[in-house]
């Protein structure tokens, strides 16, 4: 690393830092942070708290883009803001030290998670802000005045493995009609309650998630991904509820009724 050039950070967390006890550290962070459910509800996972693991990895990716990483003058320590808080509402930071292990490529080695008030942060000339995902707050709200364009046939064909088991063998024409009806109901729901549409961050853009209820009107089975254009919305794909929650959590903790973990 050089003091004379702006820092360029790798895109992937694992290329940025070496964290040999990832599972243990994620468990510790879960206990340190405000209580939250970080596990999938419908998808088997061999990892502990997969939503929290992904949160850290993809928060880092955005942090690297914005270069919101503080580094000491001697380049011995680095830190960034996780965006998480403790039960007492104190921001949590992730700290790194220069990697002194031989044959380990990343420059940084994970040190610890710490609260904003802990003395370790006094090493840094400035404390970095949490990452930022949007400039226009209106992208977070579904505008019912805009047309929603959806190719139901395409969405079904590309994502049939994500549908409820009871519907996978259904007649394609009947399933298309069922999906179209569910999407119409979701739009009506969003018209009456703007909180129905939940934002997610994907490849530099804010998208919205709408509930698709296929078997029970009171329960979502899938989430429709809605992309915003200047004059209309486009339904691009559908996600399982675990996938949708995982993506939505990147921006904020969803407090909506249909996407609760």
End-to-end separation in angstroms reads 41 Å
CATH class of the largest domain: Alpha Beta
Mean pLDDT across every amino acid position:
92
The SSE string, one letter per element, is: HEHHEEEEEHHEEEEH
Query: How many strands appear in the DSSP assignment?
Result: 10
* Count of the domains: 2
Cα Rg:
21 Å
Output the structural class: alpha+beta
The parts where pLDDT drops under 50 for at least 5 residues are: 1-5
Helix content: 25-40%
In terms of DSSP E residues, the strand content is 15-25%
The strand line-up of the biggest sheet is 1-5-4-3-2
Q: What coarse outline follows from CA principal-axis ratios?
A: elongated
What is the subunit organization of this protein?
single chain
User: In this structure, how is the largest beta sheet organized?
Assistant: 5 strands, mixed
Number of helices: 6
CATH fold-level name of the largest domain: YaeB-like fold
Architecture per CATH nomenclature, i.e. the level-2 architecture of the largest domain? 2-Layer Sandwich
Summarize the structure.
With 261 residues, the protein is α+β, with helices and mostly antiparallel strands.
Short descriptors:
5-stranded mixed β-sheet; single chain; alpha+beta; 261 residues; YaeB-like fold
């Amino acid at each position: 690393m050089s003091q004379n050039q702006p820092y360029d950070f790798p895109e992937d967390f694992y290329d940025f830092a070496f964290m040999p006890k990832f599972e243990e550290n994620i468990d510790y962070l879960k206990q340190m942070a405000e209580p939250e459910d970080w596990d999938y509800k419908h998808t088997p996972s061999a990892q502990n708290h997969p939503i929290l693991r992904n949160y850290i990895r993809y928060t880092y990716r955005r942090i690297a883009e914005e270069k919101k990483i503080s580094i000491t003058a001697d380049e011995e320590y680095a830190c960034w803001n996780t965006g998480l808080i403790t039960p007492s509402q104190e921001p949590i930071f992730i700290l790194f030290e220069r990697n002194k292990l031989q044959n380990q490529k990343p420059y940084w080695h994970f040190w610890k998670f710490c609260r904003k008030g802990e003395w370790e942060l006094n090493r840094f000339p400035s404390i970095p802000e949490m990452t930022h995902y949007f400039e226009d707050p209106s992208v977070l709200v579904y505008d019912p005045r805009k047309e929603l364009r959806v190719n139901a046939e395409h969405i079904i064909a590309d994502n049939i493995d994500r549908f409820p088991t009871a519907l996978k063998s259904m007649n394609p024409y009947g399933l298309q009609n069922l999906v179209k009806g569910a999407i119409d109901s979701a739009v009506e729901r969003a018209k009456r309650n703007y909180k129905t549409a939940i934002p997610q961050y994907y490849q530099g853009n804010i998208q919205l998630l709408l509930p698709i209820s296929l078997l029970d009107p009171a329960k979502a089975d899938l989430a429709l991904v809605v992309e915003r254009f200047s004059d209309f919305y486009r339904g691009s794909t559908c996600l399982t509820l675990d996938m949708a929650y995982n993506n939505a959590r990147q921006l904020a903790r969803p407090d909506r009724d249909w996407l609760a973990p």
